[in-house]
Amino acid sequence: MESQPTETIEAPAMRLSAVLRAGARRLLAGGIDRAALDAELLLGHALELSREQLMLAAGRVLGSSQVRAYERLLARRCAREPLAYITGRREFWSLDFHVTPAVLIPRPETERLVEIVLQLAGELQSGQRLRIVDIGTGSGAIAVALASELAGAQMFATDSSAAALAIAAENAARNRVADKIKFVHGDLLDGLPADRPFGLIVSNPPYIRRAEIDALEPEVNRWEPRGALDGGLDGLDYYRRIATEAFDYLRPNGAVAVEIGAGMGKAVEALFKDDAGCVEVEIYNDYAGIDRVVVARKSV
Q: pTM of the prediction?
């Protein structure tokens, strides 16, 4: 473990604005890129104040116990613990999610997958109720976001981790969609009924190449669950399984939509065409122009 800055916030600097500046300096010295923002969010978390409230309270004098609590949070961040794990919260799709080291932290890029699935849902909705499953749900971010937008859909969410499923269920309740999602403990599609096919199968599976995980930023390789990152030697292990298993669970004209890593579009497209015999496969970019989602449709 790398040595961390040990500077403390001196007692004379007890005014909130001064404490905040000292916190930002400490994070910057610890190699944190967004030092000023993280210092602000951590102080807000310590004091249970919003960013707006912090600004209004800039002249407030803090007690020594409050400063010590803040210093403990700064030390955790200097150890490269992700901000979301320290605060226990992450925003996704304008919803509030509880996160712990049991689940991957939701990324903004995954919102592109949600957008595309909502478009697909609009195309597939007919007289019958649309059934959707999010496999490997983790924090439940995708399933909860979809349930919040699709009032008439029947949502399922699976995960092989019981701890992750507990977090996902908590997030469904937190965002008032608990009655719209059935959580299933199982690996990918295990535990789901194959006799009642789904209209959409959605996933953000592990896709980091195993040899590349240790080179990722410390916030990822030290703290996030390895099982949610490791896609095997070439990063494609889970896509192979999805390509060979998912179409048994899809209704005619149904679709599989998966998030992918940068540069993986053609390889994942080939898996769906070669392993699943799928003719209609599309690659969608994110707003940075990077391959982000692959959609494979089942023919009639």
A: 0.90
